[in-house]
Amino acid sequence: MSRVTSLSGLFIIGTFISPRRPQPNDPLQIELRRQEQCLLEPIYKFLRTEHCGVQVIYHNVQSFAEHRDRIEKDTVFTASDIILVGKTWALPAEEISVSGFEAVSRSDCVGYASRPRGACCLVSKRLMDHVHDAAGIKMGENEDVIDAATIKLDGVLIAGVYATPGVTNDRIHAFLSRIYTEDGRKIILGDFNRNVL
Prior knowledge:
The protein is of the alpha/beta class. The chain has a domain at about 55-190: Endonuclease/exonuclease/phosphatase (Deoxyribonuclease I, Chain A, 4-Layer Sandwich), CATH 3.60.10.10. The protein has four helices and eight strands; from the N terminus they run H-E-H-H-E-E-E-E-E-E-H-E. The chain has helices at about 25-35, 65-75, 75-80, 170-180, and strands at about 55-60, 80-85, 100-105, 120-125, 130-140, 145-155, 155-165, 185-190. The strands form two sheets. It has a four-stranded mixed β-sheet with strand order 1-2-4-3. A four-stranded mixed β-sheet has the order 5-6-7-8, with helices on one face. Strand 7 (about 155-165), helix 4 (about 170-180) and strand 8 (about 185-190) form a beta-alpha-beta unit. It is elongated, with a radius of gyration of 24 Å.
């Protein structure tokens, strides 16, 4: 009956016998009472302690437009300071936004059709005064492409990267070489679609 949309055309065959009332010692009733007594404590420490430091998260979003609402409802994302998303499928004219965050850098699909690529960096609005040198980077063509969204936050370069499945090791190494020319510490998170070590 999971696909029934109306009662029209439904019939009970035979005699309907209503289910018996649950007994107090029924395993389901015992479990429901136990769950009412349990205190649910989030497993991730940052969800239950005072905020300190900078929380950065990366997600291969598989289309930002399709999954934006999941990000906005997920406390792991919204408790973070920086959200890096890859494989956005976004075109330049499309808005990428999450409540409380600002899209500061992005690398979008080229042309008029969405494709499985792209990267974006969203920063919590309370950190915007610390962000500089935001840039979107696209390297390669056809199926040998790397998209990256980068920022510097208090001198630390933070990059969210998505590489297409057809990316070559040479393209990955060229990208990493470009990033490593930047001064200071670096945090690179992403989906390279292959082992690069």
